[in-house]
Specification:
With 80 residues, the chain is of the alpha+beta class. 38% of the residues lie in helices and 16% in strands. The chain contains 2 helices and 3 strands; from the N terminus they run E-E-E-H-H. A hairpin with a 2-residue loop joins strand 2 and strand 3.
Length: 80
């Protein structure tokens, strides 16, 4: 078991409604987000744009499952 006080891993079930962008993004704080697109990595500093990614993240975390529920989803996926 891995425990980190600064990280929490959640799984968004495939049955969840579309919840966010289809590209990867990282939030570092309320001032910077990075976004990976096919051709580049973007550094976002505009407050409205960072807020958009913060809201997308909050939406994803509200739909994610954690702990035993996440392990059950992973187990079901590995069994096919």
């Amino acid at each position: 078991m891995v425990t980190l006080s600064i990280a929490r891993i959640g799984i968004v079930p495939a049955s969840a409604p579309a919840a966010g962008p289809v590209h990867g993004f990282w939030l570092y704080d309320d001032e910077v987000a990075t976004v990976e697109i096919l051709s580049a990595e973007l550094i976002i500093r505009a407050s409205r744009a960072v807020d958009l990614y913060r809201r997308a993240f909050e939406n994803l975390t509200s739909q994610a499952v954690y702990g035993d529920q996440a392990r059950a989803l992973i187990g079901a996926a590995t069994r096919g």
